[in-house]
Specification:
It contains three helices and five strands, in the order H-H-E-E-E-H-E-E. With about 130 residues, it is of the alpha+beta class.
């Protein structure tokens, strides 16, 4: 079994602290891939296991349909982090993150848009049966 809700909440806060640190250092305007690389590096430096660009294959009628998507960052095999770097998120960005979580059975997700002036406006917690 995975982490408890309390453990996930603690991990979530640690991730957010690192995101705020990165945004304070660099601000908006850089490529999503840059923020992904720096976030993964900082998570690792903090002792938080994570993987970048994790392939997720989707099944239909129990048949593997191939690559469905790639998770930007998967933390501690528990938390999905989907990153964006654009002026404004769309409804599709939010729904896409939830769909990824449902397909993979992930309970807690984080949609972060580093493209905003104030990072607090770009943080969106997503839950799936949490």
């Amino acid at each position: 079994m995975g982490k408890t809700n309390d453990e996930l909440n603690v991990m979530f806060k640690r991730i957010l602290d690192i995101c705020f640190k990165i945004h304070t250092m660099y601000g908006p305007g850089l490529l999503e891939s840059f923020y992904e690389a720096v976030l993964s590096y900082e998570l690792t430096k903090a002792g938080i296991s994570n993987q970048r660009q994790v392939d997720v294959y989707v099944k239909h009628d129990e048949v593997n349909m191939g690559l469905g998507y790639r998770m930007d960052i998967f933390v501690e095999n528990e938390i999905l982090i989907e990153l964006k770097s654009k002026e404004k998120l769309t409804e599709v960005d939010h729904k896409q993150t939830l769909t990824y979580m449902k397909l993979k059975g992930i309970r807690l997700g984080l949609l972060i848009n580093f493209g905003v002036l104030h990072l607090k406006d770009g943080i969106h917690r997503k839950v799936n049966g949490f």
